[in-house]
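Protocol step 4 of 5: obtain the predicted structure for the target chain.
Materials: sequence only (see below). No template structures provided, no constraints applied. The aim of this step is simply to have a reference model before the mutagenesis design in step 5. Sequence pasted as it appears in the construct record:
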Amino acid sequence: MTFSVEQQVLLWACSLDTDTSAPEWLSNHLDWSKILYEAMRHKILPMLYWRVQQLPEEVLHTIPPNILEQMQLDFCLHVSHQADIYHVLRIICALFSQNHIPCLVYKGPACAGLLYDNTMLRPFADLDLLIPQNYRDLAEKILIQHGFDFFAATGWVRDQFYSNHHWQYSYNRLLVELHWELSEKPLNIPLDCLWNMQQSLEIQDITIASFSLPALVLSLCIHAKEHCWNRLLWIADIVRWIAKASLEDWDMAFDCAQRATTEKTLGLGFCLAQHFFHVAIPEPYQTKIRGLRLQELQKKVQDEIWNHDPTFFHKFKLNFTLAETWPTRLQYLVRILEPTVSEYEMLPMPQFAYPLYYLLRPIRLGAKGLEWIYDKVK
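Step 4 output (structure tokens):
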């Protein structure tokens, strides 16, 4: 696959290449406005700014001053936002520790602390915390007592539309998600893979418990797959995982994936990292990944990464294809047809009318399908 020069800049920005000299293709013929836009869309602007700042002075002068100023401003805003999030994380960790609530921090902060030497280069917009389900009500009570607000609806609306596997809260306009399962069934990792393989780490002077490297990479691949891998940031995470993982980590990652019937999901993440960043995968696992026969699916996903946000139907096709057994596919279909908050927001009804949402859900999906077909024909 041939990358445009602008795409090469994005890949260079989030690669592990430590060479501070300017690549040959980095010239004054680049569309820096497009590069800046795509870097923001792919959530890699901090990495782009960091790499640009290390360029030789004569190369920096080829970048339009307004672009450099915008990158600097966006990076400063990013650092400020991350500081706010870490402040909230510090508060929650202290509260849960005082009340003996087990808690694993994952996604953004875990990636930053476990995979990135400079934690400020890994952006994240909110906090995701995993707790045992039997601590859910106590955790919520403590958060509410200390100024956290329900982010969404309460009462029966939350019980029906939000409580499958997590609740959401806000604190000073920052989102906190409290999970008791990693994701909705059937796309889940056995909880013992998470709790029995946890590790402690220190990030921004905060000691947190988080996933082990094997559980982390599987959770990253499941999350990215749900969104069709349409962010380079997620592939950059996998690249850094590969750089840090031991052979034991590889073994345990595939063992967890096999138990969760998500080996293809994990293998696809490694295939994308290898395609975009030419990382080396240890031979035993390279053979295992080849045996998953992901070449055709990988090509479709990597072609879509440069497009804008995927449609519902792109997400459905990828997730259905990666479901490895027919029972799992059936569970996924059932999950897709369950009413969501989107139906409630479209047509609020009282609790006794909740069964009607099972009729509204396929109607809404059908309307989206017709809209998608119309756009394709047009």
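Step 4 remarks: The CA atoms of residues 257 and 263 lie 5 Å apart. The chain is about 60% helix and 10% strand.
Proceed to step 5.
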